Amino acid sequence: MPKFSFPKPGAVVRDTEGRRYKLVAQLNQGMQGAIYTSEDESILVKVRKPPDSSSADFHKHLRILIRRNLEVDALVLPRAVLDEPYLGYVMDRVNDSISLVELVYPKILTTNWHVATGGLRRRLRIAAQLARTIQQIHRNGLCYVDLSWQNVLVSSDPKQTFIKLIDADNLIVPGTSFAEVMGSPGFIAPEILKESRFPDHACDRWSLAVAIFHLLVLNHPFFGDEVLEGEPELEEMAYRGELPFIDSRDNKQNRSTKGLPPGRVLTRKLRDLSRRAFENGVADPWARPSPEEWLIALLEAADQTALCPKCGATTYLPEMRGTPFVCDWCGETSDRPIELGFFDVDPAIDNLDEDERKELIRNKKAHRLVLDKEQRILPNRLVNGDPEATGDAGQFGTKRNSNNESIFGIKNWSQNTWATKDAAGNKHTCPPGDYVWLFNQTVIHFPSGIRAKVRNPYPNMGGQA
Amino acid sequence: MGILKQSVTDSYCHQHKMQINPNQFLPLRRPLPVIVLADVSTSMEGEKIITLNAALAEMHQKFQTVHDTRSEIHTAIITFASNAQQILSLTPVENVKIPTLAAGGTTAMGAAFNIALELLQDEQQMPKRSYLPTLVLVSDGQPNDPWEEALQKLLDSDRGKRAVRLAVGIGDDCDFDVLKRFVNHPEIPVVRATAVSKLMDFFRVVSMSVMARSVAQNPNSTSNSPLHLLNDDDDLPFD
Hints:
Chain A is α+β, with helices and mostly antiparallel strands. Chain A has helices at 55-68, 113-116, 119-139, 190-195, 201-217, 225-229, 233-239, 262-265, 268-283, 291-303, 354-362, 379-384, and strands at 12-14, 20-29, 33-38, 43-48, 80-81, 87-92, 97-99, 152-155, 163-165, 305-307, 314-316, 325-326, 333-334, 339-343, 366-370, 376-377, 394-400, 406-412, 418-421, 427-430, 435-437, 443-445, 451-455. The N and C termini of chain B lie far apart (85 Å).
């Protein structure tokens, strides 16, 4: 077999349709292949080393991926297959993006690094995008296999939350033979490490859980202090899930003083999902939460974060109404922001007294949304847990009244008229494009039947509720 | 009822008094040490030392592009001429300033092996958390100090034995037998840099080998011999 060498910058490669690409610079070279920029700046070319299986198989695999026309928004798919003598493909270049690793471990440690890269809320939303993307891949009958920091690009603008998954040539139909890559260190499911099986959906669930937990907690789920400070051999045990989960409820043998305190960066629901993944899910792959379960819990968690007016960080707003809002990251105490409690249709709710209503919220029948200018209002997603639901969308806004005090409102972005009822029982309507001005106890009736009740709109003025 | 409420609020506030500094909570990464043993005897003067300096600088640049949550490449340099000294202690790549080496003196390679052994056993520079090191020996001559016992001790030590050991001999006067005994691995050849420019290629392969380990499933495993990387290179001659 002739010795393989990568093409040098300046070389011209062709795809099977006869299009030519002049390679400009090699971006990186890994064990499997090298990625080049081309004269067309919107395009990247990946040249692979010959795989263990035949090149024909790989070509076929790529062509199937292209032809299937997958409906996965955040996946960078091969656009064309390279012609002989090279093996590889052409793909779109993702501009203005950085590797997800920069949200987990900074290149340069600055004091406000975590907030500057979007803080807790952006990480929750990026994690949600990740779950959504894996969910879409699975719905197409495929597995992504190689979820890792390097394979996820995120927007370099910390205000944006878009993600792109690259290295789509590793996608497989589970059970078929073409699985060259088993995953990346730290992300590979224990059963693959122990039994050298082929990856399947449950393995993706493991990798997804690792990515979400690590992105939020900033530590690997099995890297307790003893692992981090001990010999490298312990790391191997950690990867195989042979040590307790660092946030195990019962087993405190592998606790970590590194990583953010899980109780601060994970909601109760996210903590429960993590425990399912990293305790029950070690030996029982299908006990691991599905991408959809993660997606719903992550969106819900992001809805419950409040923005610190001083430092711009985001912290979960405590549910208890009497407690002040203290920023977890700078320690500043601020007025509690406005919250909307969303309820399933239940006419009786108007007649409930405060204690009963609290009880209702405690029983998770009310879905909380902390309002600020970054939060979108999507009642159907909140109440029905349908991540794709966009009906009755609203946007938070403010205006100043004659006393120069801010009045808070929600702009009706939908095509429908909303009905409202104020604390005194007066009814109004809010046509599309108008605002519902938020006063304490105001109830919004959405056409879908969902209601939202305003809590604590003007902390300085009120508190009597 | 009131008391209960109060205590709940208290404990909540108490919990929230501590601010989180995310930087404090970042897990320490494991050092992945690269230790260069460089011959700076008089015969290295001129093109050889200039090329070696350039090769080290290039390797360092490549290491700086590695960004991982687990490992962090640390570099050390031991030079040897009339005597040996560690001119760069094991330092995380981001803090390393590669010194410019100057040539002059005889070839105290044995002394360099002794210093390397001390370094491998130094808990300060190489905590037990460290992955196994890569040792890189560069020479163009023959040792003229007692080296055999020093080398044997290095090879018998726990980390010395398990380390990835690579060597390059420059020019024709080089003692390849010493280098072979240093590498002491049936599958890892000693690289012969007849032309000095081959030194650059050698260090490129060293960089690739280290970087491949930094992203490997098990960076501590040295069983994946870097031979295939060496072989990838177009026309690097081996001895």
